[in-house]
Write the C-alpha cells for this entry.
Amino acid sequence: MSTRSEGPLGLDDDALAACVACGLCLPHCPTYRVTGLEFASPRGRIAAMREVEAGSMPIDDSFERAMTECVQCRACEAACPSSVPFGHMMEDTRAALTEQEHGTSASRPRRALEWVGYRLVLPHHIVLLGATWLLLAAQKLHLVPKRLALPALSPRSLARRLDVERGGQPHAWLFTGCVMDAWLRDTHRSTARVMRATGATIARPGAGGDCCGALHVHAGRREEARTLARRIIASMPGDAPVVVNSAGCGAAMKEYGVLLDTPDARAFSARVRDFSEWVVERGVPATSRSATPIVVQDPCHLRHVQRSHLAVRTALGESFALVELDDDGLCCGAGGAYAATQPELATAIRDRKVDAIRNAVGQPDPVVASANPGCMLHLRAAGLDVRHPADLLAEVLDG
C-alpha cells in the first residue's frame, strides 16, 4: 500500500521512487525537446519534486516555473518502462502549490483573472455564453489579437439552440461541456447527427452538467474540480454511455474514480466513451467515400490517457484516405489553457507539429483530423484546416 510523503507536496512515496532516471522519457517530452533543459524534462521535474519533499530545495520561482511549464501531455507515461504516474504527480504538485498559496512567480492580476475564469465563468454556462457574445463583438471590432488562438465565432451558430433534449433515458448521453458548447457548437450538431445515424436516442446532461473540471485539475484547483465532477455525475444518471467529443474532457471524466475515489465515481468513469470509440462500438453508420486525404493528429489525452486514438482511424477509415505522422504522437502545445499561459513554449512546440503535418502530405494546407477543441484551435491559429472527426463523418453521412 502506497504512502504519502510528509513533505510540502504530499506526493506518493512509491511514485517518487519509481523513476530510475533512465531518460527514455526525454525524446517524448515536448518542453525538453524545444529547450534541451533537464529541468524541463519529466526526469528533471521528478528530481526537483524529490528535493522539495526532502527539504533540500525550497519552493521558489525556479521550482514553480518547472512545474507550470509542463504541458501535462503525459507522453512520458507511455514511454516509461517503470509506469511512473507522472500526470498524477504533476496534478498533486500543482494542487499543493495552489492550496498552500505558493506561486511566487504569478502576478496578482493573473491570479485575479484565473479566479474569474475558474470560479465564475467555466462552472456557470450562462456566464460563459454571455462572455462569448462579448468576445464575438470584440472580434467584429478587430480587438482580439490573433496570437490568442481563439475561434472565429459565428453569431448564427451561437444563437441556434442545439437540438438535443435534456435528461430522459437515452441510449447515450452527449456531453456538451463548457467551452466546447460555447465555441464549437456546430461540432456538437455533427456529433448528434452521427450518433442518431447509428439508431441511438441521445440526450444532453441535466442541471449541473456544464463543466467537467479538466482545466481545474490541470491548474491545481482540485477541490473545485471535485465539486464539478460530482455535479457532472449527478447530471447523467443511469447506466447509458456518456459520449464525449473533447479528448481532454473525456480523459478527465475517465479519471473521476481517481479524483473522487468513490464507487459511484468509478462506475461513472467506466461509462465514459470518446466519440470515435463509441461510434466504433455502436457501428459506424454508412457514409460515402471522399477523395480528400486526412492527416490524423492524436490529441495527447486521447492517445496517452484514454488510449483510444486508434478508434479515430477505424471511424474515419472507410470514408477517407488517412495519412499518419511520423512524430510518435508528439504534443501540439495546446495543453488546455497552456497556449494562453505559456504562449512562447506553446508556439515553439506547435511549430514542430505543424512541420510534421505538412511534411506528411508534402503540401502546406492539408486537412487535419483532431478530436480535441484545444488542439483544433491551436493548430488552426497556425493556418491549418483542422476538423473534428464528427464534422468529417457528418459531411459524408448518407452520401
